[in-house]
TrEMBL record:
Protein name per its UniProtKB record: Palmitoyl thioesterase CPT1C
Active site: 470 (proton acceptor)
Organism from which the protein derives: Myotis myotis (Greater mouse-eared bat)
This protein's record includes keyword Acetylation: no
Span of domain Choline/carnitine acyltransferase: 175-752
Superkingdom of this protein's organism: Eukaryota
GO molecular function: carnitine O-palmitoyltransferase activity; palmitoyl-(protein) hydrolase activity
GO-annotated cellular components: axon; dendrite; endoplasmic reticulum membrane; mitochondrion
PANTHER family cross-referenced by the UniProt entry: CARNITINE O-ACYLTRANSFERASE, CARNITINE O-PALMITOYLTRANSFERASE 1, BRAIN ISOFORM
Gene3D superfamilies listed in its UniProt record: 6.10.250.1760, Chloramphenicol acetyltransferase-like domain, Choline/Carnitine o-acyltransferase, domain 2
The EC number(s) this enzyme carries: 3.1.2.22
Subcellular location field: Cell projection, Axon; Cell projection, Dendrite; Endoplasmic reticulum membrane
Length: 790
């Protein structure tokens, strides 16, 4: 979600990591280390790899095969065609009485070899099947005979009852696209936003790059794609996230919201108790790999690697780059309330604490009258500071308050018990939603520990929220966890009539441990500087959230169009009306069809979208002409999205080429130009992945309202959206107040108008537009053809 900001801001700083003498060796060394990291990850989870590595077979299948071979020997048959006898000859001779044992061992070795060969064959066959992406390229709603055959074969080779990581060994590696195709697609993507002169200059740089540097850089990427698990993802994590020196707050972290219209209980401690218990239930299922892998079309598995670091993970600041510290287990959470830090145990000798026991512990913290120590209240502002400042302060902090710091960084996750209410209010719904989003994205600058993989935020009225650190995973993974949490704490755990967690308290539990910080004097100044910068950034962030309820996914589906492409094309119209010009647009698409894939960029501002926007602003164009151009724009966006998902996008390939050029200290003006671009419109759709957990027909209010992220550019917008049920789309918009060119509320109005205008091109949409609440028919009809006032 917030990755576009990091992608723009990254500047490879490699001089400290590579030797000047042999630049080629430096690049090869970096590629070697990438592969080494991949193998280390596999070795660290050897046992899970064994259990999932034999999938779609099972360990019991070896026993069945061994028993079958023994039965064949009993019937004087030799299914090994003499191989078992040869294996027996190679075994040591232990004497006559052990002759039968040698036969059993030889049969076991033959069974193991045959079993391994069969598993390897299944893996290769499944990997070849999963490398097919023809199903992505088919028209919306259609399925060809080859795709039906492919689905049947995938079903045969996929096995039954997969675990979370069962498909990891069978996933194909992300392909390295043709550099000529990538450059061609890039030039096509920037043509709508560049003048003729600028485009000719850029095209000249591109041709020079293809002639002089491209083949060498591409060779290194091909080498890495063969050696490492993924040719780009580890560099993306390191250079875009971990080497960034910017503040995590607003710039990198993103947020997730609670139910929009309901709050299951107003009791803060109770909501915290159920939510923490639900999150730890999710962790328990994750550790046992009981979470089902995500399947597209019910058959095509996505990579599950990002799930490994959801819990027990902290981003630790460093002088030049951060690193992710992940613990195998943690049996406590760190809690912040009114400037004080606490350690709350989550387990007793008998297992996970009940929701009611956790509520009791959180209530004890809320009732604790002790004040915060000097400077302790604002300590967490250091995690919102530029990373260099925080790294320096952390070294001093660790030497004097190492135990308290370890309790926070070693926690399963961070919990913030806020003293203020949040969420939708009837008195001022628009302002209350905006304030809710702002509290989740930025807070007060000192009440979130932004380094933790995520912070659970519980407001005083029982409203929930999530602040997520971005480097360890992307939004769909944290969103999957959040959907489970909301559904479990509300529908399965539930609350008593008086709003408390069900069950009984446990008075014998020790009280939460108050953490004490011995803060060195030089840290005091760092805290003051960090707090000032955090408050400035927070005050400059403008958030706007609005549910668009005139139509949603069901209407778009009846138009036989892709929901995401519909919204993206309408966003181009809205942004043009807001700014009066086109700009590069960033939409995040997942590449988890491949092993350790993360994201790719869809460049949504296409020539087709621009033609549609111009037609909508031209009063001489008829609705049928605009509709034809709209369909062309939607089809183009769909083609770009499918290309990105199938590893044929533009930006990750250019990014990886840029990294190799930096490793080789090779000047590539074209790549420098590409990575100096500004994304003034960054967008992302938040997927709803577990619809079976929510009954949107009987309980339409119990649906997650998505989340958002900060603006990518100081004069740009960050826009995310989620389809809530069939008839609502909730938008989250952010921008900078200091910019005279942006206004989140103004863009929100343009988005609403653009969606209605696009819908009016369809016959059913005309009725929707006429029936809009609070809008006159004349006003709605005059909206087309009007440019924004600046």
């Amino acid at each position: 979600m917030a990755e576009a900001h990091q992608a723009v801001g990254f500047r490879p700083s490699l001089t400290s990591d590579v030797a000047e003498a042999d630049l080629s060796a430096s690049a090869l060394q970096e590629i070697y280390l990438s592969g080494l990291r991949s193998w280390k990850r596999h070795l660290s989870r050897f046992w899970n790899d064994f259990l999932t590595g034999v999938f779609p077979a099972s360990p019991l299948s070896w026993l069945f095969l061994f028993s079958a071979i023994q039965l064949a020997w009993f019937l004087q048959l030799d299914p090994s065609l003499g191989l078992t006898e040869k294996i027996k000859e190679l075994l040591p001779d232990w004497g006559g009485q052990h002759h039968r044992l040698r036969g059993v061992l030889a049969a076991a070795l033959f069974a193991s070899c045959l079993w391994g060969a069969l598993i390897f064959t299944l893996h290769v066959a499944l990997r070849l099947l999963l490398s097919y992406h023809g199903w992505l390229l088919e028209p919306h709603g259609a399925m060809s005979s080859p795709t039906k055959t492919w689905l049947a074969l995938v079903r045969i080779f996929s096995g039954r009852h997969p675990m979370l990581f069962s498909y990891q060994r069978s996933l194909p590696r992300q392909p390295v696209p043709s550099v000529q195709d990538t450059v061609r697609k890039y030039l096509e993507s920037v043509r709508p936003v560049l003048s003729d002169e600028d485009f000719d200059w850029t095209a000249g740089l591109a041709q020079e790059f293809l002639r002089l540097q491209a083949s060498l850089l591409q060779w290194y990427l091909q080498l890495k794609s063969w050696w490492a698990s993924n040719y780009v993802s580890d560099w993306w994590e390191e250079f875009v996230y971990l080497r960034s020196r910017n503040s995590l707050m607003v710039n990198s972290n993103y947020y997730m919201m609670d139910f929009l219209y309901v709050t299951p209980t107003p009791v803060q401690a109770a909501r915290a108790g159920n939510a923490v218990h639900a999150l730890l239930l999710y962790r328990h299922r994750l550790n046992r790999q009981e979470i089902l892998p995500t399947l597209l079309m019910g058959m095509r598995p996505l990579c599950s690697a990002q799930y490994e670091k959801i819990f027990n993970t902290t981003r630790v600041p460093g002088a030049q780059k951060d690193h992710l510290r992940h613990l195998r287990d943690s049996r406590h959470v760190a809690v912040f309330h009114r400037g004080r830090f606490f350690r709350v145990g989550t387990h007793s000798p008998s297992g996970l604490l009940s929701p009611r026991a956790l509520e009791q512990q959180f209530q004890r913290i809320l009732d604790d009258p002790s004040p915060a120590c000097p400077h302790e209240e604002h300590l967490a502002a250091l995690t919102a500071a530029p990373r260099d400042l925080w790294a320096q302060a952390r070294r001093s902090l660790k030497s004097r308050a190492g135990e308290a710091l370890e309790a926070v960084e070693g926690a399963a996750f961070f919990v913030s018990l806020d003293s203020e209410p949040a969420g939708l209010t009837r008195e001022d719904p628009a302002a209350s939603l905006d304030a809710y989003a702002h509290a989740l994205l930025a807070g007060r600058g000192h009440d979130r520990w932004y380094d933790k993989s995520f912070t659970l935020i519980v407001f005083s009225n029982g409203k929930l929220g999530l602040s997520v650190e971005h480097s360890w995973a992307d939004c769909p993974v944290s969103g999957h966890m959040w959907e489970f949490t909301l559904a479990t704490e509300c529908f399965q755990l539930g609350y008593s009539v008086d709003g408390h967690c069900k069950g009984h308290p446990e008075p014998s539990l020790p009280r939460p441990q108050r953490l004490h910080w011995d803060l060195p004097d030089k840290v005091h100044l760092s805290i003051a500087l960090a707090l000032r910068a955090a408050k400035t950034l927070s005050g400059d962030t403008d958030c706007h959230v609005f549910p668009f309820s005139h139509f949603g996914k069901s209407f778009i589906r009846r138009c036989h169009l892709s929901s995401d492409s519909f919204i993206q094309t309408a966003l181009q119209l809205a942004h043009f009306r807001d700014r009066g010009r086109f700009c590069l647009t960033y939409e995040s698409a997942m590449t988890r069809l491949f092993l350790e894939g993360r994201t790719e960029t869809v460049r949504s501002c296409t020539r087709e979208a621009c033609n549609f926007v111009r037609a909508m602003e031209d009063r001489e164009k008829t609705d049928s002409q605009c509709l034809s151009l709209f369909r062309l724009a939607v089809d183009k966006h769909q083609a770009l999205l499918k290309a990105a998902m199938s590893g044929q996008g533009v930006d990750r390939h250019l990014f990886a080429l840029h990294i190799v050029s930096q490793l080789l200290h090779l000047q590539a003006p074209f790549l420098d130009q590409v990575h100096s671009e500004q994304w003034q419109l960054a967008t992302s759709q938040i997927p709803v992945q577990q619809t079976h957990l929510f009954d949107v027909h009987n309980y339409p209010d119990y649906v997650s309202s998505g989340g958002g992220f900060g603006p990518v550019d100081d004069h740009g917008y960050g826009v995310s959206y989620i389809f809530m049920g069939d008839d609502t789309v909730t938008f989250h918009i952010s921008s900078k107040k200091s910019s005279t060119k942006t206004d989140s509320h103004r863009l929100g109005q343009h988005i609403e108008d653009a969606l209605l205008d696009v819908a009016s091109l369809f016959q059913e949409g005309q009725r929707l537009k006429r029936g809009c609440r609070g809008r006159g028919e004349e006003d709605a009809g005059n909206r087309r053809g009007s440019l924004p006032g600046h």
